[in-house]
User: Fold this.
Amino acid sequence: MSVQSDTTPAPATADPQPPGGEKVSLRKPILAGTVGNFIEQFDYGIYGFLAPYMAATFFPGENQTAAMLGVYAGFAISFLARPFGGMIFGRFGDRLGRRNALAVAIISMGVLTTIIGLLPTYAAVGFAATIFLLVVRLLQGLVQGGEYAGAVAFIVEYADQKRRGFYTSFLSVSVFFGLLCGAGLSALVASLVSDGQMETWGWRIPFLVAMPLTLFGLFLRLRIPETPEFRRLQEDQQRAIEEGRHEDVITKSPVLDALRTQWKPILVFAGFAITNAVLSYTWVTFLPGYLQGDPVNMPKEQALASNFIALGVLIPLLVLSGLLVDKIGRKPMLIAACVSTFICIPLAFKVVLAHTFTAALVAQLIYLVPIMLISVALTVSMAEMFPTKVRYSASAMAYNLGFGIFGGTAPLVATFLTSATGTIWSVPLYVCAIALISLLCVSLGFRETKGTRLVDSKYDR
Assistant:
């Protein structure tokens, strides 16, 4: 049984015509939708690159490994908080609109990222500095829990039905472009100041840059009307009130309704999202650090350069992936991503053990194959799997369930496995085990969403 609106939405067009007659170019919704996600990933990029400086700033200096694990714990905490943030922002977005929720999310993220750049050090206030950092990361996680799912819903609800994959590919681009810019700015600052200056105040600069970016993003979001899909719900709700019908077109309890009616697709989506989460964060966060340590011992500049080049190669491939998703469908791409993981990830780690810059670069280019195949297919299906009235809540819970548990813990798990087993081969084994779970979820539970009506869910209650 599907959840349906009383009215059938007008067919989507490449240049949507929202209720009220205000015509909106798709460039504006895409830019407004991606800017917040760019800032979120910009934060992850600087946090990952500056982890050694933050370990020395916010944790005791006696045990460097423990300090680094503490920084990674801050990374994990923000992810673990995301499912709760998804419920908060999902309720907001399904009740009051996608644009309003995204405006609150972007300004909150910018303020919290800026606060990290202003926190006192461990040397100044002791363990209070550690607690401050972890609390801010926790709050960031709550905000991040509502950003990505809301941005996906925002763009998909504007997009042409036949080109949703292409348009949402720019959200996937914003993920890795934000990481690239965050890490790149951090590297630039590190190259312009001395090591001593970097340790005392230089690391703060990239965090402080977030605020002007945030104000620009807020300006963009407030200039875009609410999505056509949500505005139709608002019109249907107003019509029901005027006609005296006791009907909640806009649900009063979207989170509860999503859990009650959409629990199957929520679990299915989380089941294949875990592969994207683990692939992304073992590559972006764990691998550069591994290249710099034993037994590879690659100079930091080379390790980061190989990662930057690979990120740059991935960005145009994601747009190509969006075109493929629209042509062949979501399910074939998701299956191909899981199967390619079994081949590409062990091969990438075998190549990286050659301990050269070229090997590190080639290994990461191999690593890109399953990431390119899964990222856009996962992103567009996240919105298409759920009906409009609970889309924000359901997709936020589904996405953050997978990424919150497996994405944020990926660097910790990879570091622990390498240390506990004494071999790097435990990491690709872990990634492949996760991909096997996702393959089963996609093959047995996922229903193709290409061309689906956004107002409906293809999953039975």
In short: Residues 119 and 132 are 7 Å apart (CA to CA). Confidence is low (pLDDT under 50) at residues 1-22. DSSP finds 19 helices and no strands in the chain. The chain has one domain: 27-445.
